[in-house]
Every structure is written in structure tokens, then in C-alpha cells.
Specification:
Layout lengths: L20 H31 L6 H26 L7 H17 L1 E2 L6 E2 L3 H25 L4 H20 L19 H5 L8 H19 L1 H11 L1 H6 L4 H27 L10 H11 L11 H20 L4 H46 L1
Protein name: Erythritol transport system permease protein
Membrane topology: Multi-pass membrane protein
Keywords: Cell inner membrane, Cell membrane, Membrane, Transmembrane, Transmembrane helix, Transport
């Protein structure tokens, strides 16, 4: 009688457990990169605090926190996509589309074959609008994961689709007055909730904190998080280990759409209007926040903490440029230069890391050859 033994499946590559050498190396690299971003943030704050007495006032800090929260929530969704080695250029347009859907629902829906107009309640409007954002993400994920389309081209196309749908819904008009609702229609309370400031903080800041905590737990304490890092580090190895690569890829784009949808609602409440250009440049700010926070555009490396720090860097920089009176055109130039610098530093770090690993591998081979010869 013969017996067979089954070898255990290979483990997917990823950021090793904290107790292992690989895990300690990963954590050390993350701390170093995040420390670099934190130092940049402190330098930015110090410079603009000297240049303007209004920079660190309570009112301006509240404004910064609110804007940072919008960018950070979108950036957290972008983090998941980048960890997987992808990109989502449609998040800004999804923010605008979500707000346009919500504004249209506040106006009321003309029921077909009747002359009746239905006015949904606020919670229904919010849920349906955010669901539209998730639908955009699901379509992106389906095209990328199931049809193997390139993430850059797919989400770039979706950027135009979502922005076009936004313009169709708004038809060249801003939706403003209808957002307050009418008591007799039972659709009031939108601003009461989404423009509130519990404990002195804007509601958007609390939503940012909630998303940051949940995403941090998901990435560090669940199989989904480990699988996500694994697919970004080495997709083939993860697939051979039984990781559901396609399902994970679809879900992260849905979550990215969720983040964009939530920000669409929050931003609409912030400006008390739904406009066709809402969400413009959000995708660039999100990518910048993720990269400045230490994530690798190639996938497999990045943290929630670093992304939040990156969002604060972008937020404090943008606000400081406005405070000191820098032209809006130069603001874009400077922000773009910061993005390029962050990507360049990341690439240089990866090149140095690869060369160091190559030298170690060569040294190990030579050591093994010498031992055999002896």
C-alpha cells in the first residue's frame, strides 16, 4: 500500500506578521515613510504660521479639517485600490454624480404614466445616492477583474461617463433651494444632520475617523486585509495560495465608490448645492495623499495612518497657499510638483530597496557556494 502526503499550500506574499523579520522590516519601512510625511506636515504648518497670523486660528483650522476630511475619505478608498496595484481615476466624477443624484431626488421624481411627483425621505435619498457611487465602483471592478481591462484606461473612461451623467442630470443648473426640503413633504433634515458639528467637529471629520478606524481594522486584523496586501505584493503567488483575487479586486473598487459616494453627500451639504463640477481634482488629491503617506503605486505597501497624514499634508499646503495669496494657477503647479516629488521619492526608495535585496541575494549565493567548496 502506498501513502501520499499533501504539501501545504504556499503562503501568499505580503507584509509579514509583526513578530517575524519580514514583518519588522515592513513596519520599520512604514514608520520611516510616515515619519517623512509627518515631518513635511510640521514644516508646512511652521512656514505658513510664520507667513500668516490667520493660519492657525480656530476658524481656519475648522475649514482645513473639513476639507482634509473630504480628501481623506476618498483617499482611503484609493488606498485599497493602490494596495492592490490598481488606480481609480473616476472617484472625483463619482463624487459629483452622487451629489447630482441626491439633488435630483430632492427635486422629486416624476412617476411614469402619471402626473404625480414622488419626494423620497432624506435617508432614502442618501442611501440611493451612495448606492450609485458603489454601482460605479462595481462596474469598474467588474471590467477590471473579470474582463482584465487596464485599471487606468477603465477608470479614465468611467471618469468621463460619470461626469457626463452628472451634467445630464443637472442640465446646466445648480440644485440649491430644494435641498432644504419641505415639512409637508416629510423630506427635511438634510442639513441638520450632514452640516452639523458634534462636539465642535464637522460631521465630515467624524465620518473620516470612522472610516479610518474601520479600514485600519480591516487591513490589519482580517483575512481580507492580508489577502489585499498579498495580491498587491505578488498576485500570482496569492492566486496559487487560494486567495480569491478577482473577488477582492471587485470589492475594493466598490469600497472606493462607497467612499466617493459618502463624500458627495457631505460635500453637497457643505456647499449647500449640487453642481456639475463638484469633485473635480479629487482623484489627484487622493492619489497624492496615498503616495505622500508612503504607499507604493506598484501595490502591496501602504497604511491608513500614512494616508491620513498625506491628506493633512495636502490640506494644510493648499490652505496655506490660499491664505498667503498665491494665485490659483500657481497653487495647481505647486500641488502637482508635490505629487511628482512624492512619486519620485517613492520610486528612488524602491530602486534602493531592490538593489539592496539583490546584493544580499548575491552575498547569500556566494556564501553558500563557499560553504560547499569547503
Amino acid at each position: 500500500m502506498t501513502t501520499t502526503s499533501t504539501a501545504p499550500a504556499p503562503q501568499a506574499a505580503g507584509p509579514g506578521p509583526a513578530g517575524t523579520k519580514a514583518g519588522r522590516s515592513f513596519n520599520l519601512n512604514s514608520v520611516l515613510v510616515e515619519g517623512r510625511a509627518l515631518i513635511a506636515l510640521l514644516i508646512i504648518i511652521a512656514i505658513f504660521a510664520v507667513l500668516s497670523d490667520n493660519y492657525l486660528t480656530a476658524g481656519n483650522l475648522t475649514t482645513i479639517t473639513k476639507q482634509v476630511a473630504f480628501n481623506a475619505i476618498v483617499a482611503l478608498g484609493m488606498l485599497l485600490v493602490i494596495l492592490n496595484g490598481g488606480i481609480d481615476l473616476s472617484v472625483g466624477s463619482t463624487v459629483g454624480l452622487t451629489a447630482a443624484v441626491a439633488g435630483t431626488l430632492f427635486r422629486g421624481l416624476n412617476l411614469p404614466l402619471t402626473e404625480a411627483i414622488m419626494f423620497p425621505q432624506v435617508w432614502v435619498i442618501v442611501v440611493l445616492s451612495v448606492a450609485v457611487g458603489m454601482l460605479v465602483g462595481w462596474v469598474n471592478g467588474l471590467l477590471i477583474a473579470r474582463l482584465n481591462l487596464a485599471p487606468f484606461i477603465t477608470t479614465l473612461g468611467m471618469l468621463y461617463v460619470a461626469r457626463g451623467l452628472t451634467e445630464v442630470l443637472l442640465n446646466g443648473q445648480n440644485i440649491t433651494n430644494e435641498l432644504s426640503g419641505q415639512p409637508y413633504l416629510n423630506n427635511t433634515g438634510f442639513f441638520t444632520v450632514f452640516a452639523s458639528r458634534p462636539l465642535g467637529l464637522p460631521i465630515s471629520a467624524w465620518v473620516m475617523i470612522l472610516f479610518a478606524v474601520v479600514f485600519s481594522i480591516v487591513l490589519t486584523r482580517t483575512p481580507f486585509g492580508r489577502w489585499l496586501y498579498a495580491t498587491g505584493s505578488n498576485e500570482r503567488a496569492a492566486q496559487l495560495s487560494g486567495v480569491p483575487v478577482k473577488r477582492i479586486r471587485t470589492r475594493i473598487y466598490v469600497l472606493s465608490g462607497l467612499c466617493a459616494g459618502v463624500v458627495g453627500i457631505l460635500q453637497m451639504a457643505n456647499i449647500s448645492s449640487s453642481t456639475a463640477d463638484l469633485g473635480t481634482y479629487y482623484e489627484l488629491n487622493a492619489i497624492a495623499a496615498v503616495v505622500i503617506g508612503g504607499a507604493a503605486l506598484s501595490g502591496g505597501r501602504g497604511t491608513v495612518r500614512g494616508t491620513i497624514i498625506g491628506a493633512f499634508v495636502i490640506g494644510f499646503l493648499a490652505n496655506g497657499l490660499v491664505i498667503v495669496g498665491v494665485s490659483p494657477f500657481w497653487q495647481k503647479v505647486i500641488t502637482g510638483a508635490v505629487i511628482i516629488l512624492a512619486v519620485a521619492v517613492d520610486q528612488i526608495q524602491q530602486i534602493i530597496g531592490r538593489r539592496r535585496n539583490a546584493r544580499r541575494a548575491v552575498a547569500a549565493v556566494r556564501q553558500g557556494t563557499g560553504a560547499k567548496a569547503g
